[in-house]
Amino acid sequence: MMDELSASYSDLLDGTYDCMDRVVLRAYNPICYAAGGFRHWWRQLCGSDESLDDTHLMRMAGRFSRRVRGFAQAKGIPLIDCGKDDRKHEIAEDYLREHPTVCGLFMILVARAVASVWQVQRSKNGKIRNIAQKRAYVNHYSFHIMDPDWGHLTIKMSGHPPFGAQVMLNGHEYVACQGARRGLLFTKEGNCFTQIENVAGLARVADTLSEDRTIGLLSQLCDRWIYTACLCFALDSDEQERTGFRYSYSVYQGEYSRNLVFQLGGQMEQVFQGLVDRNRARLDIRHLNTIFGAKRRPRYRKGGKAPRLGIVVEKPTYDLTVFKLHFGKLTLKVYTKGEHVLRIEAIAHNARALRCGQVITKFPAIVASLKGMLERFLATLYWVDAAFIADDTLDQLPTPSQVGKARVGGVDVNTARMRADMAGVLALAPSPTGFTAGQLAAKVREITGQAQEQYRTTQAAYDLKKLRGKDLVIKSGSSRRYEVTPHGLRTIAALSILREQVLKPLLASAISPAPASNLTSRSTIDDHYQALRNEMQGLFGHLHLVAA
After folding, report:
1. Element (H, E) at 491
2. Which DSSP string corresponds to 156-186?
3. What is the pTM of this model?
4. Which of 88, 275, 397, 424 has the most other CB atoms within 10 Å of its CB?
């Protein structure tokens, strides 16, 4: 079912599709992440723990490195030592563009990163006194693999025991592989389909990533490569079997996007820029980045290499605008992708923030949570963008109301405190998990510049009760968190627009006419404002209303 924002622009669209983007899985051996379990595993590997010390642990890491480098040299696989500023994924993309027919392990990149390693302390008589885990910068090996079902994926593994790893893949790669098998025609640029012949057919393929069977597909994918292409350099098959070394998987990061495929690129830019202009101030969007005049989408490194394309499409110069809303480890983002695609994206930088579990069996729940987060954001954009006030709202807001057994005062929009409350509520509305009275109090203090003692959490809680009495805000279940209702979003946004963007500028300009503008170009809004100023000046003159 299409969301309200997408439906409002349906006449301009070829279609929409949802897809998981970047997915990062953690691979770990649960036994080896506990001191006692790691000591038991070492005994299974070496027969006893007499050799369990820092020296032998470093030797195992050295063996891993020698085996990887020897294998790469023997098989002619590129192995590159990367610096901290190198974009490893882009190096692999450049290689794939020059070697499009590769399959299996095609590149190994080495770089230092933080990982958990074990440190063994022994007493003077050689007894193990303590086994402690610490975080240290060690070499990580990124194995770049081309899988026939999932496309390009990367397994990044630490060279030190307990050999923790991350499996990085992209849902668009999977959809491209499966779509090609079904005979679907499309143009793919990076992780986006910019031209699609059958949008509905591709959307059905993308939807399979949210099914329960994806749990098994992901586990099979990881098992297919992590033991035979990565862990084999640390432990050969006999050592893996003897020690019972097996990985478990959990979801670390995830991105879910909704992609609106516009018929015309110019219409897409107009729609997007309109959304940005109308909603930036209302939703407190601070992270607004505009990159002007780029031949292609910007990349972090310097140089002029073009991104990898499924089918190369020459694009004209364009300006790229991205705005983001951050909520701790969760991010909502809107930006253009290619010439015809507007992407709305929900990102979990740490899946723990979604509060629905992280183990691989929770993957469908994580996808559903990201989708819900994205749809609430789209609904917020639509409700705020389509602001309105019912005929009797202005009369009903100031009257008292009932919340449970308590009688509370009305909502007086003429007071600075209530206006600041409503501005804070509007700014916090897109929060995926709602907001608390404390967060509202902090936001109001940020807006007004007040000190903490001037506006406390208890005052915010009372003001929220007033808003609840008018059904502008509701409690989220039985928690102490609040959500803004669709009616509340539209009403608060409309009141803000009327006061700040209609009444104040019109009254100011009508009573004290603005000097003639020297602007060479005027927008449509400027023309409307000027026409209203002229009419209001005539009306005020007829009513004999003059400035004090």
Report:
1. helix 486-497
2. EEESSTT--EEEEEEHHHHHHHHHHHTT--E
3. 0.78
4. 424
The CA distance from 420 to 417, in Å, is 5
Residue pair 488/473 in contact (Cβ under 8 Å)? The answer is yes
Sign of CA dihedral 325, 328, 330, 336: positive
> What distance in Å separates the CA atoms of residue 214 and residue 410, rounded to the nearest whole number?
51
DSSP string for residues in 64-130 = HHHHHHHHHHHHT--EEE--TT--HHHHHHHHHHH-TT--EEEEEEEEEEEEEEEEEEE-TTS-EEE
Sign of the four-CA dihedral 487, 490, 494, 496: positive
Give the burial class of 209: count Cβ atoms within 10 A of its Cβ; 0-12 exposed, 13-18 middle, 19 or more buried.
buried
What domains appear along the chain, each with residue ranges and CATH number?
Answer: 23-250 (no CATH), 256-385 (no CATH), 393-496 (1.10.10.10)
In sequence order, the 6+-apart residues with CB closer than 8 A to the CB of 80 are: 91, 107, 108, 109, 110
